[in-house]
Specification:
The chain is mostly beta strands. Helices cover about 10% and strands about 55% of the residues.
Length: about 220
């Protein structure tokens, strides 16, 4: 009987001890886990410039081209506006300008006697892409994106006399990726690679080389 009473008293004491811990308030209990910050959709805009490899001189027979400028590469520009509609996923539209390739080539019919004429390729593109991002070692972020691009190409030849020039376009895939680094508040920097595919059957039946872009950009987020 005494043994049973002792067990009962020990059980009651243990229960009272547990109750005193809970009744003692937050200071007697372990601290609650911090609430996870809810995702807020946001808009962003990005603008940058960098190096583009367009490859006109390598793609076409440029052995007779002279006084060339940017026939394979040069300075490129790009800007975009996007909307992040759920964590780590966004959609964006953008515009870009590729370097203008210029050269001279000998034309036997120029001026009726033959001579060198000017020629050039000028191109811009617009695109719609989906984007996925993730954090990498602290504040640095990585992202990948892919979508479809509309590319416009203007080929000027000898002042477009007698319809010798060409206004052309095509649709094709565009994809890439890069790194992001926060600077201050909603301002951030980016390093981005983009691959703009060429075409073997444009609207005018012409073919054009791929373009590779290596860009440095600044971006800003507009939260709601």
């Amino acid at each position: 009987m005494k043994l049973q009473l002792k067990k009962i008293l020990m059980t009651v004491a243990a229960c009272l001890g547990m109750m005193s811990v809970y009744a003692g308030g937050p200071e007697m209990m372990s601290a609650p886990l911090p609430a996870k910050k809810a995702f807020q959709p946001y808009l962003y805009t990005e603008l940058g410039l960098g190096y583009a490899h367009t490859g006109y001189g390598n793609y076409y027979d440029s052995s007779t081209w002279t006084n060339t400028s940017n026939i394979n590469d040069g300075l490129a520009y790009q800007g975009d506006i996007g909307f992040s509609f759920m964590p780590h996923m966004s959609a964006e539209v953008g515009l870009g300008m590729l370097p203008k390739a210029k050269y001279e080539v000998y034309d036997q019919t120029a001026g009726g006697q033959g001579g060198y004429v000017n020629a050039s390729y000028k191109s811009w593109y617009g695109y719609l892409q989906g984007r996925v991002d993730a954090s990498l070692k602290g504040k640095i972020g990585i992202f990948a994106k892919a979508g479809v691009a509309y590319r416009s190409i203007t080929y000027d030849y000898n002042g477009n006399l007698n319809g010798s020039g060409l206004d052309d376009y095509y649709w094709g895939p565009i994809f890439g990726g890069g790194l992001t680094l926060p600077l201050k508040d909603d301002l951030y920097a980016m390093l981005e690679y983009s691959h703009l595919t060429g075409s073997s059957d444009s609207n005018e039946g012409a073919s054009y080389p791929d373009s590779d872009l290596y860009l440095a950009k600044l971006g800003y987020r507009f939260t709601f």
